[in-house]
Amino acid sequence: MNRLSKEDIEAKLLRFPDWEYFDNAIHAEFEFENFKDCFSAMSRIAFECEALNHHPNWSNVYNVLTISLSTHDAGGVTNKDFKLAEAIETIVEQEE
Amino acid sequence: MNRLSKEDIEAKLLRFPDWEYFDNAIHAEFEFENFKDCFSAMSRIAFECEALNHHPNWSNVYNVLTISLSTHDAGGVTNKDFKLAEAIETIVEQEE
Predict the structure, then answer these.
(1) Are the beta carbons of B25 and B6 closer than 8 angstroms?
(2) Which CATH class is domain B6-95?
(3) 3-state secondary structure (DSSP) of residue B8
(4) pLDDT at site A96
(5) Quick one: signal sequence residues (chains A, B) (predicted)?
């Protein structure tokens, strides 16, 4: 899995308006009604992560979920990150 | 719920060797076998948080869970944080 160039990442991000590229990773923040809704989305995302064998750096405070994705072995952002970002978007759209 | 003094917090922390006090909150880091075990513990902790109506500032990267507890309304650490820390310890001991 090759690390994508800054240009490739920025081109791909046009389809991901919730996500930003900085510090060698892609980042998004999602806000939910409350903690329960937020953690429900996290649980569904956790299953996707296991299925894709790719795991986020993520934080939660009450109803806010902050996610950063990068591919450690590649030293940057790869298509694996965009695949997981897409799965996350699908889940969040259903839960938000 | 009153904010505890530094002395009170440090006295209480003697019973919580995994936790440290700094930046006006108590903090712990827990390591698990893998992501699944880590997220399982997080799920059990999430139920406790809802039951206690008290929520952490927490982060996860693969098998590592980092938790910070403070009571926003009190502007610091209160007995609510120690109650949740105790519940977290019980869960983590069973999962780790």
Answers:
(1) no
(2) alpha beta
(3) helix
(4) 64
(5) none
| Strand ranges for B1-96 from DSSP E | 20-22, 25-31, 57-61, 64-69
In angstroms, the separation between the Cα of residue A57 and the nearest Cα of chain B is 5
**pLDDT at residue A18, rounded to an integer:** 96
> Mind listing the pLDDT tens digit for each residue in A16-59?
999 999 999 999 999 999 999 999 999 999 999 999 999 999 99
Of A35, A49, A59, Cβ closest to residue B50: A35
Interatomic CA distance for residues A78 and A74, integer angstroms: 7
For residue A45, what is the nearest residue in chain B, using CA coordinates? B39
Give helix A35-52 / helix B35-52 axis angle, nearest 10°: 170
d(CA A16, CA A11): 10
pTM of the predicted protein model:
0.95
Residues of B in Cβ contact (< 8 Å) with A55: 35, 61-62
Question: How high is the pLDDT of residue B94?
Answer: 87
Q: What are the sequence ranges of the domains in chain B?
A: 6-95
Render A5-52 in DSSP notation, one character per residue: PHHHHHHHHTT-TT-EEETTEEEEEEE-SSHHHHHHHHHHHHHHHHHH
